[in-house]
Amino acid sequence: MTTESKEWLLDEENELRIEIDFEAKVKLRLVTGTAEVFGTELAQNIDYEFSGRKLAVFTWHGCKLILQGQCSVEYIANETPMISYLNTHLALEQRRVLASQKNIQGPRVLIVGPNDVGKTSLSKMLLSYTLRQSRQPIYVDLDCSEGSITMPGCLTATPLTEMIDVEEGFGSSATSAPTAGSAVMPLVYYYGSPSPKDNVKLYNILVSRLAQSVGRRLEEDEAARTSGIIIDTNGLIDSTGYDIIAHCIKSFSVDVIIVLGHERLYSDMVRLHQKPGLSVVKLAKSGGVVERDSAFRRHTQNQKIKEYFYGTSKSELAPYSTMVNYHDVEILRVGDGNLAPTWALPIGEERLTSETQLVKVDPGDHLLHSVLAVSNAEKPPGTTAPDGLTTEKEMIGNNLAGFVYVSEIHDARKKMTVLSPCPGRIPKKVWWLGSLKWAEE
Ligand code: ADP
């Protein structure tokens, strides 16, 4: 491994943009001055280690940095949209001050834009600046392709109480433990696919469900209520994307829409949604945002799954292996995956099988390498609960206890071996199958 180290001197309001391959490890050290990574301040004379990341180290007042290791890209940029991002934060902060005085809800901010314009990075910055003001915002992640908080395929809401970790971002420990930046467990709903287009109906049901849970949290938690929520979205901006955005606005009672890096989307959002009590704001994309190809995205998704079971180099985990009888669990998936997605059907044609129909999956060799989501549902569908029958919608709307990975199938013995981050028998019996597969290296 290379130990080559390089010193960088940054003037005020400059940023060092770096890209690090998955195979490389790079250490970053702030020697003098102040600097931040997506809003989180760096401590002086501490080595931060990165691998498989693209990031910017920004300084408001100038700094000296040392990079040790091989970056695939490294350069200083002196033109950034950071002032406009900070001003946006300050405007939102004014609303929070007002919300605290009147004990009403703080801003509910939706960040929209195409893929790779910096939506997640801007969410991190706005959340970090809010946390730096000793507030406790809720981060809602509706980008099911990325899984910033937990696994890809999930919709999550995380009450943040601590600064976002510079190295690990929003953290990787998912539902088994509180994530970095959060003393509270995130709320996780399983959608099971990287694109909202695969099952728009299910996606919208889960968005509504998540919004209801966040609403309850805001009622109970004054600090979160006045701090408000920041909602990160997927990059879908066609007509399906517009319907999804409209649904999010309604479900979360959004009062600020930030449109990042897309003129037409901005003008459409103004035309469709701007009204008294709902402002639409346009912000420029940073020149540093990097487009991620499908190989990079796949690699990031695999890394997320691996981190869920094995942890990160900073906090390693050892997963537990458990043998499960086929008949002890109920494996379900939502909708019929063999049918064309709704958007691919000819106009006016209705799907025969409901997109939200629960389909029972028979365990077998096809489950090998699947990542299954463990539902918090107590009873399988159709069983009589004290309050009557468990309906499909209720079933789908249960949040998650965690995930398991199918590492071996013993079909003749009707058993399978699963990895789980928790020891012992897995108490929850309803498991969801999505499209998530992972071949352990
Ligand atoms: P989106 O959420 O819109 O898809 P992201 O915020 O995830 O976009 O940004 C895409 C990639 O670009 C990420 O890997 C992110 O870390 C990187 N990135 C964002 N802003 C910068 C910047 N100013 N300099 C360098 N890399 C950046």
UniProtKB/TrEMBL annotation:
The keyword NADP does not apply. Coiled coil: none annotated. It holds the Pfam family CLP1_N. One of its GO terms (cellular component) is mRNA cleavage factor complex. GO terms for molecular function: ATP binding; polynucleotide 5'-hydroxyl-kinase activity. GO terms for biological process: mRNA 3'-end processing; tRNA splicing, via endonucleolytic cleavage and ligation. Keywords: ATP-binding, mRNA processing, Nucleotide-binding, Nucleus. Residues 10-97 form the Clp1 N-terminal domain. InterPro entries: Clp1, Clp1/Grc3, Clp1_C, Clp1_C_sf, Clp1_N, Clp1_N_sf, CLP1_P, P-loop_NTPase. Its main location: nucleus. It is found in: Nucleus. Belongs to the Clp1 family. Clp1 subfamily. PANTHER family: CLEAVAGE/POLYADENYLATION FACTOR IA SUBUNIT CLP1P (PTHR12755), POLYRIBONUCLEOTIDE 5'-HYDROXYL-KINASE CLP1 (PTHR12755:SF6). Required for endonucleolytic cleavage during polyadenylation-dependent pre-mRNA 3'-end formation. This is Polynucleotide 5'-hydroxyl-kinase GRC3. It comes from Lunasporangiospora selenospora.
